[in-house]
Amino acid sequence: MIWNEKIELLSRDGLKKIQTNSLKKMLKVLYSNSSFYKKKIDEKGIKISEIKTIDDIGKLPFTDKDDIRDNYPFGLFNSPLEEIREIHVSSGTTGHPTVVGYTDDDLQLWSEVMARALCCAGANKGDMIQVSYGYGLFTGGLGLHYGATKMGLTILPMSSGQTKRQLQLMQDFKPKILACTPSYALFLADEAKKMGIDPSKSSWEIGVFGAEPWSKNMRDKIEKMLGLTATDIYGLSEIIGPGVAQECTYKDGLHIFSDVFYPEILDIATGEAVKDGEYGELVITTLNKTGMPLLRYKTRDIVKMTTEICKCGRIMPRISKVKGRTDDMIIVRGINVFPSQIEHVLLNMDETHPHYQIIVTREDNGLDNIEVLVEIKQELFSDEIKVMEVLSSKIKNNIQANLGVGVKVRLVEPATLERSEGKSVRVIDKRTL
Amino acid sequence: MKLKQVSIFLENKEGHLLTVIKLLGDNDINIRSINIAENKDFGIVRLILNDSRKALEVLGANGITAKITEIIAVEIDDKPGSLANILEIFHEHKINMEYMYGFIQRYSQKALVVFRVDDINNAIKVLSDNNINVINEKNIDIL
Ligand SMILES: [Zn+2]
Predict the structure, then answer these.
(1) Most buried of the four, A66, A97, A208, A300, by CB within 10 Å?
(2) Cα(B66) to centroid(ligand 1), Å
(3) How far is residue A57's CA from residue A60's CA, in Å, rounded to a whole number?
């Protein structure tokens, strides 16, 4: 089922018209209301009257995460605080947390895109959904909740945790949809087994999984273990939370709701738009938001996008799974290397979250070397040297195949790699450039 | 019968082995035998202990990767040809050996050899059929 046929099946020209009108309206409001954006636009030396169609968007200035942090807490709100209905906060590793505010209209918009997302994942009115994303300052729980309310689903607002209870109520109430992080889905399957429940006979038929990277192998494993169709959802709190893009049941890319979240894919080095199907940074303009509208927000997520029409009939373009983040990209021997690529390789070999560290060094002759340290986990440990050596070379080969550049792999003891405030230090670049 | 061996993953770093051995000693765990297999990056320490379960708990609590492996220990005469005899029996019955190591026991003239094989039950059976003394946990207590 398609939630909003008028929009989701709209022709490309029709879509463009909507995007153009919304952008113009947005610019007018921003330029007269927001000192932050007025300054940015003026500094760029552009007049908003020069923006004739959505294709002119490239002339406009960017916004990035630092802009939000620097204006902590409410500096980027474009509506009076009393019109902000809800605030969400996500913490980063450095500096101020990221604060976002939603007006009534924004909450309506969030419900709309989440309803589209749930439909896209295969939900039908009246289905029961178990929402096991955290409720609270994190956008996951409430985002799913609003969409499910709008769509007319029966909601089981579980939030995260209380795994036994989650499984008990699943058995008793038989919800059809499970929404949580992919790693929690796997955890639920394991816990079910421990409780003597066969997870493949779960009542869940559809999974809406997101908020963390996951691999194709992990999808296969979840689908097999839980006996459901596992779909990927994408979002970030700065834009709205979950509901920016969602896979349909064909699972061939995530439909991005581009009538309201206008996507651009830009070359990381030049900032120019890449060709259809090429990787670049996803930059999003929130065309309709009022609480905290963002112009050309740099998500730092590397994806590719296709405008080919999907088998499901939706015109909305599709983005790929996130390949990496611009902020942790390293260039080695002229090749862009993302820690997430290495993470994906490790996730593919063993689905639990891997701990690893990339050390880049430069030899006297100027050649760069990558060494990947991988913490050895209980499940992968063998008492036989040759088994461990096979594992180490398998990791090495898989990483090399993925990166296209030679690496050294060293297995290390668990919990030995440097952590900073609980978060792993992924890259140590010892090169003096 | 099967014996339990505790296998530990260790990086080749100075002091790491000492840390583990001290940890076991501090927790009153006795080491019956120790064997180390290593390459240039890491080593696997294989221990036969008086209390494997407790050792695993202690090691786990200290963030050390360890697991229990089942092995067999065989008493052989300390004379030429006795090891070859056992290897021949394995070969004959298509039992694959992953690794082996020997150690000397205190109270008899005989040598003990530890075998890690793919089909441990079958290995025990064919050794017993050939009148070879497979050590059980009671025997190992006197080591
Ligand atoms: Zn589709």
Answers:
(1) A208
(2) 47
(3) 6
Rounded to two decimals, the ipTM of the complex is 0.85
Distance A307 CA to ligand 1 centre (A): 11
Name the residue of chain A whose CA is nearest to B117's CA.
A384
Which chain A residue shows the shortest CA-CA distance from B66? A378
Interface contact A379, partner B, CB < 8 A: no
The shares of helix, strand and coil residues in chain B, as percent rounded to the nearest 5, are 35, 35, 30
Domain boundaries, chain B: 3-69, 72-141
pLDDT tens digit sequence for B30-58: 998 899 998 888 999 999 999 999 999 99
CATH 3.30.300.30 segments of chain A: 330-429
Structure-token match 């993925």, residue found: A402
Nearest to A415 among B41, B44, B63 (CB): B63
Architecture of domain B3-69: 2-Layer Sandwich (3.30)
Residues sharing a CB contact under 8 Å with residue A263, sequence separation 6 or more, in sequence order: A256, A282, A283, A284, A305, A317, A319
Q: Please, what is the Cα angle at B90 between B86 and B91, to 5 degrees?
A: 115
Q: What is the pLDDT of residue B142?
A: 45
CATH topology for the B72-141 domain: Alpha-Beta Plaits (3.30.70)
Of A183-192, A266-275, A315-324, B108-117, where does mean pLDDT reach its minimum? Answer: B108-117
Model confidence pLDDT, tens digit, residues A288-298: 999 999 999 99
* Contact between A411 and B41 using a beta-carbon 8 Å cutoff: yes
Query: Do B3-69 and B72-141 share a fold?
Result: no
Q: Which residue has the tokens 């978060």?
A: A423
- For A351-379, what is each residue's pLDDT tens digit? 556 788 899 998 887 788 899 999 888 88
Whether residue A413 and residue B7 make contact (CB cut-off 8 A), yes or no, is: no
Contacts of A271 (CB under 8 A, 6+ apart): none
Q: Given pLDDT bands bounded at 50, 70 and 90, which one contains residue A92?
A: low
Q: What is A1-326's CATH number?
A: 3.40.50.12780
